[in-house]
Amino acid sequence: MKSPTAIELLGALSLTAGMLSLGAGSALAEETITLGAAVSQTGKYSTNGKHTTNGYNLAVKRVNDTGGIEVGGKTYVLDIVYYDDESTPARGAQLAERLIGQDNVQFMLGPYSSGLTKAIAPVTEKHGIPMVEANGASRSLFAQGYEYLFAVLSTSEQYLASAVALAAEMAGKNGRDPSELKISGAFENDPFSQDIRAGVMEDAEGYGMEMAIDEKLPPELNDMSATLTKVKAVQPDLLVISGHAKGAALGIRQISDMKVHVPMLAMTHCDSADIIGKFGSDAEYTLCAAQWAPSLSYSDEWFGSASDFAADFEAEYDYAPPYQAAESAAAVLVYADAIERAGSLDRDAVRDAIAATDMQTFYGNVKFDDTGKNVAKPMVLFQVQDGEYRVVAPTRWASAEPRHPIPPWSERE
What we know:
This protein is 38% helix and 20% strand. The protein is of the alpha/beta class.
């Protein structure tokens, strides 16, 4: 039986594994299904690592509180063994080996970030251990032929696809052919943002749109003015920016300072950059890619609706759930569903059940293709409207109409 002080050790950022005893009966090892996870509690990913861990923990608690998992006429509860990967890929791979080789974990949850997932996936694959991950979006993960890796989130090339589709939709409403539109793009020169670029390029080509500017931004990302000067000259119909939180903040600040006008602006990481809190009205009209929103109409048997999950999460952790927490919780629900359908704790039987998943969670629909990608959930586009994020795309899930085109700066002041 695991030490009762394990949760305290985790809270102190110990490197010692902590078994989370989240359900009544979880102390009985023979009635427990143990999941393993190396998640950043320290280092540069520690904030999103916390969101990931909180999402996992809340879902485990909910599964246990609602009756656990039925397997072969027996009821099991879930527990998680955690280690801190220190936001370092090499450490993540080392800890995955420890979870599998020493802790005898048969089922893995993913870390935070594509880089850590890329480090751990070869380990789980080598040992034939299923890993359902929620925070590794790089599409290159799903071009390796892995058979044990599954992702509940939308992959990176989809992040700004909704923006290109929305631009085409707005063009049609205004009597224009989408092929007449010009796009300008500024993408950090890192694997995640370059995946997003590839998706934008593919979608633009599909509509026959011109990619008028295609800029690679340096990783240090301290100045975007040269790119924005070109944007002012080209006058595109859509400007897309992907540079993580730093790029989103820099983009809003310099677009405002330089009075760069575009009819539509879309970017990633608006929430983590806190563009509303930092820039106020200068952030108005910005379209923001997100994996999930509490206003969506998805639901499941464990949490109910997306808004129910948001309320439960905030009651438990005293802050509103970011999408990282929501997608992490959904990964646990995939395990609960797949293990019960498998009717077995055999890891290959569970792996096959995961591959056959076709379900709806509060986070969205989940169905995996042959590469392990979730092909049933689109990305969401928020727009900053009156100082709040409102879902405007995809239209089926929208809670507000998009405000388009963005008015000139002279009319915004």
